[in-house]
């Protein structure tokens, strides 16, 4: 794999702007485990090894179980995730796989479970990790580098 640019070094102002969004997201009402599920699942879909590594470790530090992380890609086929977590995972997948769009069913399910502010914050959390994933994948960021 060829060495690629490090955006943080080449364009520190752009990286600072991304960090401002990330820092704001840390102040939202979103529960830590909800954020972790969003970050790990989007990173799996996008194939960002760097983010999968970081966020799965963070999730475990926040109390996530190994079992749930192991089955996260098949969350629909298990009863290990709450109704709220299932709604969050469905939104994460559909926002991440945007060309398919976010279905009315998925959006309405989330809107029934969360107030408007929490839902807005969830959508922004999904958008933020997708941006980070695209940075990680396009620049070939790898864990422990």
UniProtKB/TrEMBL annotation:
A molecular function (GO) term: peroxiredoxin activity
Protein origin, superkingdom: Bacteria
SUPFAM superfamilies referenced in this protein's UniProt entry, alphabetically: AhpD-like
Keywords of this entry: Oxidoreductase, Peroxidase
Coiled coil: none
Entry keyword annotation includes Cell inner membrane: no
Domain Carboxymuconolactone decarboxylase-like: 12-94
NCBIfam families: ahpD_dom
Full protein name: Alkylhydroperoxidase AhpD family core domain-containing protein
Species lineage: Bacteria, Pseudomonadati, Bacteroidota, Chitinophagia, Chitinophagales
């Amino acid at each position: 794999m060829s060495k690629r640019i490090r955006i943080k070094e080449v364009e520190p102002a752009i990286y600072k702007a991304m960090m401002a969004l990330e820092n704001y997201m840390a102040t939202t009402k979103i529960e830590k485990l909800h954020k972790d599920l969003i970050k790990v699942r989007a990173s799996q879909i996008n194939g960002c090894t760097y983010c999968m590594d970081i966020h799965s470790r963070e999730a475990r530090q926040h109390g996530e179980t190994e079992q749930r992380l192991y089955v996260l890609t098949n969350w629909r086929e298990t009863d290990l995730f709450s109704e709220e977590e299932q709604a969050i995972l469905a939104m994460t997948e559909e926002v991440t796989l945007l060309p398919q769009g976010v279905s009315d069913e998925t959006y309405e399910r989330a809107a029934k479970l969360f107030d408007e502010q929490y839902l807005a914050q969830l959508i922004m959390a999904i958008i933020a990790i997708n941006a980070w994933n695209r940075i990680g994948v396009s620049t070939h960021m790898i864990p422990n580098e």
